[in-house]
Design brief:
Helix content is 23%, strand content 14%. With 414 residues, the chain is of the alpha+beta class.
Length: 414
């Protein structure tokens, strides 16, 4: 049996608690989220709260993904707070405190909630249901969304049930205006180093100077099909890939013993993103079940939410971005240079001070010396992922354009 860290066990336990209490929802409105404030002492309240929802939105805006915004205190939110603390050189305890809250409030300069009018395009390309059996999946025209509610929840980084919770009685039909949470627009910076930390369930991405750009929650491999070790190059990044199921290469699903082609879509086995690695059959990809990111397992690869995977796919540089998988017992902080603690903002609560202080802290986060065994970056031929505006950026401006992207690789395992 593989070693199991105390941190990983704690995160799994913390994740399981909210999942078991998903029915214990509180009455919450967008106004409650906007008005939520940290009392100045203590951690997040247990269960669901407007304060946790606000924290999750602020973390998303800070480039530290909490996974889905659902208002529940749990493992993904705790891991995101730890990542935020690491980014700012603070003690990593995963707990909300005055220092963390003051830094997060710098990202509250615009409303955290808003309204979106559903369009006819939002209701296009839906499917009735997604079967579990891969042979049945292969007979479908696409792995599309099953409802407008599912599509819009992903677009605004929300749990489906939380979107419904903020919109009691909503039918989610064209012409209807609904309440949403407002995350950050996708980053388009280039990242040249990605660190995968299975123990903490986080994936951290850095630019050419070693500055932390984004940090995501992830499912990394499983006991039956563990993730790779060492360092590997990003070979390609593909949006809406086909999925090739091949039981002769990795795993067998049910009674399916033949190679199958599963059509593209957000509910496919790898979601709607595949970032291909130089390690054959391995990659970083999306998921059809973002709310269960810390619960479901991945067949050897690195699983992110679809929106995080899409953002990352447009930031990597094929042939140059290196992905480092940490050995058990090694943390991200141990393979990056120390960060000087970001001072407590000397401004009134809720005021926006800009990113200068945060940028100064990020700039100090430089990669550790590169081992001699790391792959050498090289420029690959072929088309890059399009940087066109994606549905979130368009929706935030009340439009619904979709991002087109091309690639050269197809996933064969998740």
């Amino acid at each position: 049996m593989r070693p199991f860290s105390a941190l990983a066990a704690a995160l799994m336990l913390a994740t399981a608690l909210p999942l078991s209490a998903q029915e214990a929802r509180v009455h919450m409105t967008p106004a409650d989220i906007e008005a939520a404030s940290y009392p100045g002492a203590g951690d997040l309240p247990p269960g669901q709260s407007a304060l946790t929802a606000k924290l999750q939105i602020l973390l998303d805006r800070a480039g530290i993904s909490p996974g889905v915004v659902d208002g529940f205190r749990g493992g993904m939110s705790e891991s995101a707070i730890r990542a935020f603390e690491r980014k700012h050189g603070l003690a990593q305890d995963g707990r909300l405190d005055p220092h963390v809250w003051a830094l997060l409030e710098q990202h509250a300069g615009t409303p955290l909630t808003g309204h979106y009018t559903i369009t006819e395009q939002d209701a296009q390309g839906l499917v009735d249901a997604i079967p579990a059996d891969y042979a049945e999946k292969a007979r479908m025209p696409s792995m599309g969304y099953t409802s407008v509610q599912e599509r819009l929840a992903e677009r605004f980084h929300m749990d489906e049930r939380f979107l419904a919770q903020l919109n009691p009685g909503a039918r989610f039909v064209a012409g209807e205006t609904i309440a949403i949470t407002v995350p950050a627009k996708p980053s388009r910076e280039k990242v040249l180093r990605i660190i995968v930390d299975k123990a903490s369930g986080r994936v951290a991405a850095y630019d050419a100077t070693g500055r932390l750009v984004v940090d995501y929650p992830a499912t990394v491999g499983s006991a039956a099909t563990p993730s790779p070790h060492g360092s590997h190059l990003v070979e390609a990044a593909v949006i809406d890939p086909d999925y090739t199921y091949n039981p002769n290469i990795n795993f067998k699903q049910g009674e399916n013993d033949k190679v199958l082609r599963i059509p593209p879509g957000p509910n496919g086995p790898v979601g709607n993103v595949w970032i291909d690695l130089s390690k054959p059959t391995y990659g970083i990809h999306g998921t059809p079940t973002p709310s269960r990111l810390f619960v479901n397992q991945s067949n050897g690869c690195v699983r992110l939410t679809n929106w995080d995977a899409q953002e990352l796919a447009k930031m990597v540089v094929p042939g140059q971005t290196i992905v480092d998988f940490l050995d058990p017992g090694v943390s991200i902080a141990e393979v990056t240079k120390p960060v000087e603690p970001t001072p407590m903002p000397a401004v009134a609560a809720g005021a926006v001070t800009g990113a200068g202080t945060a940028d100064a802290a990020e700039a100090a986060l430089l990669p550790a010396p590169i081992p001699a065994t790391r792959p050498v970056a090289r420029r690959l031929p072929g088309p890059a992922v399009s940087a066109a505006a994606d549905p979130l950026a368009a929706a935030l401006n009340q439009a619904t354009g979709t991002a087109a992207a091309q690639g050269t690789a197809q996933p064969v395992a998740n």
